[in-house]
Amino acid sequence: MDPKDAAKLQRSIDVVHSMTYFVPETEEHLVAAGLRPGRMCYFAGRAAPMGAVGPGVVAATFYNFNPELVARHLPRAWTLATPEAVVAARFRSVDAALRRVLGEETATGPEIAEAAALARTASEACTPEGRALYAGHADLGWPGEPLLDLWHATSLLREHRGDAHVAALLGAGLSGLEALVTHTATGRGFTPQAAQLTRGWTEQQWAAAEDGLRERGLLDAEGGLTEEGTAQRAAVEDVTSRASTAPWEHLGTVGGTRLAAIGTALTRTIQAAGVFPAGTFSATAGRTTA
């Protein structure tokens, strides 16, 4: 399979997972489980499948967050709620959010069941070697209900690709902050302002990273990618996609096309519901990979 086609298939279902980080149900249910409102819910919610890991592990696997920001919330989160309780609360929040956003008829309809089966089939070809965040999620059992099985499968596929992306960024010599700066410079995904705010980087840290990237010939004076910078980002995406084709090859062309069609329709519904705040993304809502 062409790696670019695999990347397109992944993007067609990404929003089903990424909406989790923006809907109010997530914080509502995780706070009910014992966590504090705000960033703690994000860090603990996404990391919980790996167990009661510390801030170093989370900063390493999430990659583009300021470690100082992570350390404000972990390991304290695990003194307030166990990872098992957080995982359970996260699934409850997903169920409530998807039912609200999609509507009960769609959420319990035959296309969700079909998409869940297809996405689960794709995820069967995911491998854990070198993919710590994916492996943690893969250790969780399947919920056993189509709507949640779909979300879990999209989570597995997303984290599987995300771990490969981190490896590609490391291979390209980009730190987490540098990866974030160059990603926003592509004009896709987060705006620079949203990236700084959500990832916890100061103006000074961001500016220093830009200066370093200019010295390496990757950014121009206006903060845009140079020809070399553009080529590097393209190479990173290619390496990522090549390491992430197995699930889609396993699913096959017919299954992939069908899952993409359902995923695209669900994405439109989710975006139309206003899940993603205005001004957060430059172009492609829901894409947060750096």
Can you walk through the features of this model?
The protein is an all-alpha fold. It has a domain at 3-17 and 103-272. It is built from 17 helices and no strands. It has helices at 3-18, 24-32, 39-47, 55-62, 67-71, 77-80, 83-102, 104-107, 110-123, 132-138, 146-171, 176-185, 192-199, 203-215, 227-242, 246-251, 253-272. Helix 1 (3-18) crosses helix 11 (146-171) and helix 1 (3-18) packs parallel to helix 17. It starts with a helix and ends in an 18-residue tail after the last helix. The model has no long low-confidence stretch (mean pLDDT 95).
Distance between the termini: 24 Å
Query: Portion of residues in helices?
Result: 55-70%
Mean pLDDT equals: 95
Major sheet, described briefly? none
Give the overall shape, derived from the CA principal axes.
globular
Element-by-element helix/strand order: HHHHHHHHHHHHHHHHH
Count of individual helical segments:
17
Q: Which class do the helix and strand fractions yield?
A: mainly alpha
What proportion of the residues form beta strands (DSSP E)?
Answer: under 5%
Radius of gyration: 18 Å
Work out the number of β strands: 0
Low-confidence stretches: none
